Amino acid sequence: MLIYIIIAVILSIAPKSGKKANLWNRIIILALASMGLLRGEPVGVDVRKYIINIQHTTFDPSSWNFYTVFEPGYNLLIAAFNSVFDYPMLFIGLTNVLYVISFNKFAKSKSRDFNLFILLLFLLGYYTQSYNIMRQYFAISIFLLYATHVDIGHLTKKQFIMTFLLILFLGMFFHNSTYIMFFLLLYNIPIIRTNVKKAHLCILLIFTYFMTYLQVVRQLLQPLTTFFLLNDKTNTYFNSAMNADNITEEYSIIRLTFDTLFALFILYKASKVDVYVFCYIIGQIYLNFSSSLNPLFTRLSSWMFIIGIVALCNLYNQSKLDRKVIILYCTIIFINNLLKNYGDTIPYVLNI
User: Fold this and answer.
1) What DSSP state is assigned to residue 152?
2) Does the CA dihedral 149-152-155-158 come out positive or negative?
3) Which end of the chain is more exposed for a tag (fewer CB within 10 A), N or C?
4) Cα separation of 298 and 347, whole Å?
5) Domain ranges in the chain?
6) What is the crossing angle of helices 320-339 and 253-269, to 10°?
7) Helix residue ranges per DSSP H, the chain
8) Residues 201 and 281 sit within 8 Å (Cβ to Cβ)
9) pTM
């Protein structure tokens, strides 16, 4: 795990903005991209499953989903790669490079403290999470690259339609977690954007927290087991969560309390509910609600949190107290992730 600590230290001492920040940024992004490109097969939970699927995938649809189910767009992408190369780990490594590039481009387009964005992203575990949920992060990367070209908090009518179609496309052909981004479109409806208040989000934060604390979420969602949700895989995960006698929660109530208190702090300190604050708070509200279900559902919140990191960057320079609280929170999360071995990610090894 030493490599993760070294990267965190380098990120923490790098200039957050200014002339020297660009040079440091190039070094950091090269390091993170190289780590993703050269990572070994053991680094990540489903890498072996991906390798088996990639080895068998061609443009013939009958060859798709040999070991596990992938979306059709992802299968076509693999087939195109296999028509040129015959090295599955290269495909996985190149997608990791795409993740890093998209994170950085989004950071530079939305925050003047772009190195701070990368630091917080790394400390909060989203870089290493990309080693595990690769198709979701591929979809996130495409969306972030698109988001660099629009004001995601004030979409024009044309941009609203384009964003809607992009969410549908990514959700249908690459990963259905993309549908959580309909919350972004919800924010862009003028009557909602101008009327959403801190008090509304605060009530939802506290309400969803206590729903999980009192263990009533599954009871409330039980009627939905009679409906078909998106696809067979989602339906299976949801029904297994509803019917299980005991749920192994990915988030302890202590962690959920800690995260919710931090989200309330962000909401209290923010001068207004802009799109980045909105996304961060919606991410926590969704996480509160889904944390007692199958852990796979909680990962959808990564979409909102990654975009919401811009709100943390904005608050970072607001006062010394804000800066200290943000760094303390992110550092605790980073240490917790290290102690938990990043959940499912084992220590980093090179693909040699």
Assistant:
1) T
2) positive
3) C
4) 23
5) 1-149, 177-316
6) 160
7) 2-13, 19-38, 47-56, 72-82, 88-110, 114-123, 126-129, 134-147, 157-173, 182-187, 190-193, 198-213, 217-221, 232-243, 253-269, 275-290, 295-298, 301-316, 320-339
8) yes
9) 0.90
Q: Name every residue whose Cβ is closer than 8 Å to that of residue 191 and which is 6 or more positions away in sequence.
A: none
The tokens of 298 are what? 């909680």
Asked if pLDDT for residue 115 goes beyond 70, the answer is yes
| 3-state class (DSSP) for residue 13 | helix
Confidence of residue 351 (pLDDT cuts 50, 70, 90): confident
**Running DSSP on this structure, what letter comes out for residue 250?**
S
Q: 203: which 2 tokens? A: 């009530």
Each residue of 106-134: b (16+ CB within 10 Å) or e? Answer: bbbbbbebbbbbbbbbbbbbbbbbbbbbb
End-to-end CA distance of the chain: 18
pLDDT in tens, 147-178: 999 999 999 999 999 999 999 999 999 998 99
Higher pLDDT, 216 or 334: 334
Question: Could you tell me the two tokens for 105?
Answer: 């481009």
User: Under 8 Å CB-to-CB from 3, ≥6 apart: which residues?
Assistant: 35, 347, 348
Task: Reduce the DSSP state of residue 17 to 3 states and report it.
Answer: coil
- For 79, the token pair is 């087939």
Residue with tokens 């024009």: 156
Could you tell me which of 132, 234, 124 has the C-alpha nearest to residue 179?
234
Q: Which two tokens stand for residue 261?
A: 């208190």
pLDDT digits (tens, 9 = 90+) for 287-323: 988 877 766 677 888 999 999 999 999 999 888 999 9
Q: Do 318 and 269 touch, CB atoms closer than 8 A?
A: yes
Q: What are the structure tokens assigned to 82, written together?
A: 């296999």
CA distance 33 to 28: 8
User: Phi first, then psi: what are they for 25, rounded to 5°?
Assistant: -60, -45
3-state secondary structure 181-239: HHHHHHHCCHHHHCCCCHHHHHHHHHHHHHHHHCCCHHHHHHHHHHCCCCCHHHHHHHH
Neighbours of 254 (CB within 10 A): 8
Which residues have C-beta within 8 Å of that of residue 86, sequence separation ≥ 6? none
